[in-house]
Design goal:
CATH architecture of the largest domain: Alpha-Beta Barrel
Helix content: 25-40%
Number of helices: 15
CATH superfamily of the largest domain: Metal-dependent hydrolases
Radius of gyration: 21 Å
Largest sheet: 8 strands, mixed
Bound molecules: (4S)-2,6-dioxohexahydropyrimidine-4-carboxylic acid, zinc ion
Number of strands: 17
CATH class of the largest domain: Alpha Beta
Number of domains: 2
Structural class: alpha/beta
Shape: globular
Distance between the termini: 51 Å
């Protein structure tokens, strides 16, 4: 019998909506019990491994339903192996690679190959998303039942929208048959026309063509109408506009089977980053604005960074459950893909290793509660791809993440395991770091000698969260 006791952490169980300071006792790779600090025994007997989690949070392993791993076809940007390494460093124990590979994941053997390659590299769950159409061309429906039988956990042409409404309707009908959601990248190509940034005053000033909010909302509205009519399962990828949140909110209220996700960047950055300023953080931490210049291609992402009103609406949607999940849209690209004019740069941010500190800024500024946030990184996404239950209760698998909300680290190319170094946060100091990731009792990532000796920290994990940016002013 193997026993591990994770001591003195703040254990968050989003399924039970609890945060308990105390010990998490693991036995034979499963949770045995959670013991509150005051009730913890002086000794757990012999043959026990201790991990000191003082000042840290202990949560279920994070789940990312929107990850780009680039294999096969674009291994220079990322491989399944390097993506998995980045995942565990970011606290993720389940990731869902998107099918915009080459060839795209539009057949059962290609889906099975993802599982095979991942299994050779490590034990975390890599649950691929199959393409909606052959070659992601939007013209011919892929064999969705076969893809689901091979293990695809959802369907998407991400990177591109399912622009043909008839095909979208067919896919939604198949989603009922397979129980897997259609995850659409909502972008009306006839409105967006390849524009590289949000439409508005900033785009005008920079002389870049704009992607209006309507370019996203028109397709969200269409898809909701189709989901309502078919009864299919619709998931909206990377919602980025206030109007998009409102469409999903209203649809959910009518009982439409729709879910939504939001990225860490759309929750914490605006289109002013393209101008070289760092709204909403300008002048009040946590970032150093001297590291960013106008037209920095690392700010190009699809959908684009929007306005502060959109950011506020996304946070409100995440809090009230309109948005079910935080998803990274981890989009690794090479230096060459970004070293060009703004309009030619490949869109996307490296995300797996930066997601946690980015979204923790929302907790630190008291815009969302930590238990709610963790819920959107665990049980929220789990429900979308149907991998429940996720919890840290008795007999649940010991699949968990331990992070220190106050640890400070600098984003450098060397600090990231991902091949993708493309982030406008390069060079910044981040607050919050994953210390240990465990998959079914096995430690798959551990930072240095974390937890090996008693750290005797002042204050618990919760105390470290509040008002951190005010203090520094
Ligand atoms: O910014 C993005 N990058 N958005 C997408 O939809 C696709 C992704 C990619 O694959 O690089
Ligand atoms: Zn997308």
């Amino acid at each position: 019998m193997s026993r591990i006791v994770i001591k003195n952490g703040c254990i968050i169980d989003p399924a039970r909506k609890t945060a308990t300071v105390g010990d998490l006792v693991l036995e034979n790779n499963r949770v045995r019990e959670v013991i509150e600090l005051a009730m913890a025994p002086d000794s757990y007997g012999d043959d026990v491994e201790f991990i000191d989690a003082s000042g840290c949070f202990v949560t279920p392993g994070f789940i990312d339903i929107h990850t780009h791993l680039r294999e096969p076809g674009f291994e220079g940007k990322e491989t399944i192996a390097t993506g998995m390494d980045a995942a565990v460093r970011g606290g993720y124990t389940t990731i869902c690679p998107m099918p915009n590979t080459n060839p795209s994941l539009d057949s059962a053997p290609l889906i099975r190959q993802q599982f095979d390659i991942a299994a050779r590299h490590g034990p975390i769950h890599v649950l691929p998303i199959g393409a909606v159409t052959l070659g992601r061309e939007g013209k011919v429906l892929a064999p969705l039942v076969e893809l689901a039988e091979a293990g695809a956990h959802g369907f998407s042409d991400d990177g591109s929208p399912v622009w043909d409404a008839h095909i979208m309707r067919q896919a939604l009908l198949y989603s009922k048959m397979t129980g897997r959601p259609v995850m659409n990248h909502c972008e009306d190509l006839s409105i967006v026309r390849g524009a590289p940034m949000n439409e508005g005053a900033v785009a005008t000033r920079l002389g870049l063509s704009g992607w209006p909010a309507a370019g996203e909302e028109v397709m969200i509205a269409r898809d909701i109408a189709l989901a309502e009519e078919t009864g299919g399962r619709l998931h909206i990828c990377h919602v980025s506009t206030a109007g998009g949140v409102e469409l999903i909110r209203a649809a959910k209220a009518r009982g439409v089977r729709v879910t939504g996700e939001v990225t860490p960047h759309h929750l914490t950055m605006t289109d002013r980053w393209v101008l070289g300023s760092m709204e909403p953080w300008d002048g009040k931490g946590p970032y150093d604005p001297s590291q960013l210049a106008p037209y920095d291609t690392r700010t190009r992402v699809s959908p684009p960074l929007r306005t502060s009103e959109d950011v506020a609406a996304l946070i409100a949607g995440l809090r009230d459950g309109t948005i079910d999940a935080v998803a990274t849209d981890h989009a690794p690209h090479t230096h060459v893909d970004k070293e060009c004019e703004y309009g030619f740069a490949s869109p996307g941010f490296t995300g797996l290793e930066l997601a946690l500190p980015m979204v923790l800024t929302l907790v630190q500024t008291m815009q969302i509660d930590i238990v709610e946030l963790i819920s959107r990184m665990t049980i929220g996404p789990a429900a979308i791809i149907d991998v429940l239950p996720i919890s840290l209760g008795p007999n649940d698998p010991a699949t968990l993440t331990i992070f220190d909300p106050a640890a400070i680290w600098k984003v450098t190319p060397e600090a990231l395991a991902s091949k993708g170094k493309n982030s406008p946060l390069m060079g910044q100091e981040m607050r919050g770091q994953v210390m240990l990731t465990m998959m079914e009792g096995q430690i798959v990532y551990r930072r240095e000698q974390f937890g090996e000796s008693s750290r005797r920290e002042h204050g618990g994990a919760v105390g470290k969260l509040s008002g951190v940016f005010d203090e520094e002013e």
